[in-house]
Amino acid sequence: xxxxxxxxxxxxxxxxxxKSPKVLAKVKSKSSKNPFKNMEISHGVPHPFxxxxxxxxxxxxxxxxxxxxxxxxxxxxxxPHPFAEIEIPKRYQFGGVFAVNVAGLDVNTVExxxxxxxxxxxxxxxxxxxxVVLDPYAKVVSGRxxxxxxxxx
Length: 153
Known about the structure:
This protein is mainly β. Helix content is 6%, strand content 31%. It has one helix at residues 3-11, and strands at 26-29, 40-43, 50-53, 57-63, 69-76, 84-87, 93-94, 97-103, 110-117. Strands 2, 3, 4, 7 and 8 form a five-stranded antiparallel β-sheet that branches. β5 and β6 form a beta hairpin. It starts with a helix and ends in a 36-residue tail after the last strand. Mean pLDDT is 78; it is low at 1-26.
């Protein structure tokens, strides 16, 4: 048994653990209500970069050659706090490109950003997972009138 299976087996108390095929991504909700009941998460398309409407929702795609993990942070339009955070699974990563499709989102009512995790050594990057960053491929940026001021969130 390889080390990762052995480690998972220890965490499960020696019992075999089945993963549900319905769980497509790890999602964190900031709300007591379930904002995900109409959302489905699946493999995204790795091109074009940015956010683009898909046949059933929104495709989010961003590249980072040094990031080890990427989380999509979703906001209701105009609100300062996210209603959901979706950790993009490794299986949705194509080299340095992270791509996820979120069905059930309305492109007119959602704003987004990303959190990245990776090296903090200054050579490969200075990632700070606590920060929500803009998509460099975004077609529109919204939020506040003075982007030099500290955010109110």
